[in-house]
Design goal:
By secondary structure, this protein is α+β, with helices and mostly antiparallel strands. The chain has 1 helix and 4 strands; from the N terminus they run ββββα. The chain is 18% helix and 43% strand. Strands 1, 2, 3 and 4 form a 4-stranded antiparallel beta sheet that branches. β2 and β3 form a beta hairpin. The protein is elongated and about 35 Å long. The two termini are 22 Å apart.
């Protein structure tokens, strides 16, 4: 089964599809810089895109 893994850090938001049964990445990880000031709405818009 696949799901989306997301990491939110101070300098960037990272995400990739992950096979949760095997723990393997199914694609290369993408990275988008965290917006400044990085309020919740801005971060959620990036994750939703």
């Amino acid at each position: 089964m696949a799901t989306m893994g997301v990491g939110i850090e101070g300098s960037g938001i990272k995400g990739a599809r992950v096979d949760i049964d095997k723990g393997d990445l199914l694609q290369d990880c993408i990275r988008i810089p965290t917006p400044s000031p990085g309020d919740l709405e801005q971060v959620l818009e990036i994750i939703d895109a």
